[in-house]
Amino acid sequence: MRDKQLIIIALMENKLNFVEYGSSEGKTVAYFHGAPGSPGECSMFEKYAKEYGLHIICYDRFTTDLSLNGKAYYRNLADIIKDKVNGDQVDIIGFSIGCHAALETSLYLGDQVRNLHLISAAAPLDKGDFLDDMAGGMVFSLAMKYPTIFTLLSYFQTLLVKLDQNILFKMLFANAAGKDKDFTRSREFKKYITPILNSCFDTNVKGYIREINQYVAPWEVSINKCKANTHIWHGANDNWSPVCMAKYLAVTIPGCKSIVIMEGLSHYSCLFESAPKICKQLAKG
Question: With CB atoms 3.0 to 4.6 Å apart as the test, which of 91, 112, 188, 249 could cross-link to 29 if both were Cys?
């Protein structure tokens, strides 16, 4: 049974919870969940990680010491990963806004990063006219211009989770595009995403707020420093992270090796369909 379940580690590592998927003897892969998000987001990698002999670890970033911000936050994440891999190399996968944290953290890991895979990646908001095309544009605009109102909105979403989980789900996916529309009608997807949203807004909202605040601050300097072998996966119909973001990152990241635009897919559908392809690619080296 243990092999058929996600392994939830109850211990704390540097005060940071984590979960593991796949083969404990396989290549180590660090997964950076989105925002909103939680380590449970990575659960759909389980069968592919086992199939291709990968050991995927996802840290619950929102439980990191809230006094850590900016470079100190990413340096701490890198130190935790370094302790885990004990001098070995590591592959990194980021999803959505988690791609920002993944990229920033990779800078402190340096040559220890074998590959960096960015799925449905969100780009810096000050480097293009992205906000008008983003389904969550209003939220990010508030975080940039009116951080106090953004904080109040986040706590209001926490209240919605406590009152009725379906309300928040409907709000977040009201403008679903591409194959994500099918996901909103799927019981399996609701079963998958609901505990992720609950974990984020019910128990870790302060960590979520920090993550969004750091994302909306300028970070192009970090992109220009990213020398890791970077691979970008993006849905052509993504309206959470518009495809122009992927194209911007592809031409700006010095270490970018490939960009795959997947027709008909949006945000989460790109995550689900790219997962087996990424695992297969990582298994080859």
Answer: 91
